[in-house]
C-alpha cells in the first residue's frame, strides 16, 4: 500500500469517475485503474462498485476511504512543517466564497494580500454554501468565506465580522418615506428575494418571520441568483429588497438615498472563515484571516452575536 494508491483511491471517491480522477491526478486512466486494482488485491476487498454510474464505493470501501483521507492529511503535515520554517509564504490557496459576499468582500483584501505574499497563487470560486462545505470535505478547497453558524461537525468556523442587513426601496414604495424601518413592516408581496439555495434568501425570510416561499405578487416572476440584479429591479420597477451592509458602502450618493436601515436591534449576518477540522496550510490561512480583518471597516468587527439571523 502506497500514498500514491491512497491518493488515487480518494480521487475516484471525490470525482466518482475514473477518467476524471486520473485527469486530476495527472496520470492516465489505465495507470490509475491498475494501481487501484493492486490495492484491492493487496487488501483482498472490493473498494468500488464499478457496475454503477457514477461509480460508488462499497460499504467497506467508504470506511477505508475515510481512513485514507486521514492518512493523506497526516502525510501532508510533514510538508507543512517544512513550509512553516520558510520566512516567505508560498503555494496555492483555494478559496470558496458565496455569491452574496464575493463582490463586496474580495475586492477589499485581495490586492493587498497578493502584494504581501507574491509567492502565493490564489484561486477563488464563487459557490453556494453547501458546495463550499462539500468541497472542503473532499479537499477541493482550502478555505471558505461564508455565513455561519453552520452546525456542521466536519467544519471549523472562525468568525470575522457581523454585517447588518439594509433595505433597498423603490422611491414610490410607502416605506421609502421612513428613515428607519421595522422587520414586521416588510411585506412579501413587494419583496424581491434570491433563488432557493442561497443562505441570504433564508435569512431574509427569517427577518420577515416567514419561512415559506416569497411571491413578488406581480406579473413578473423573476428568479435571480444576483443581488445586483434585484437592486436594479427595485430601481427601475417597484418594491424593495434586502442587501448586505458591505454592498452599500461604496454606493453613489444618489443610490444611497434608497437605502434604509432597520430599527434596533438590527438584523445581522455572521461572516466567517471556515475550514475542515483537519485543515492544512495553517500559516497561509491565518495570513488570509489577518488581511481580511485589516481591510474591513472597523464598525462591523465588534457587534453582538445575539442579533445574528439564522440561516435555516
From TrEMBL:
Gene3D superfamilies: Periplasmic binding protein-like II (3.40.190.10), Winged helix-like DNA-binding domain superfamily/Winged helix DNA-binding domain (1.10.10.10). It comes from the Bacteria. Residues 1-58 form the HTH lysR-type domain. Keywords: Activator, DNA-binding, Transcription, Transcription regulation. The keyword Transcription regulation applies. The lineage of its organism: Bacteria, Pseudomonadati, Bacteroidota, Cytophagia, Cytophagales. GO terms for cellular component: protein-DNA complex. InterPro entries: LysR_HTH_N, LysR_subst-bd, WH-like_DNA-bd_sf, WH_DNA-bd_sf. It comes from Pontibacter flavimaris. This is Transcriptional regulator. Belongs to the LysR transcriptional regulatory family. One of its GO terms (molecular function) is DNA-binding transcription factor activity.
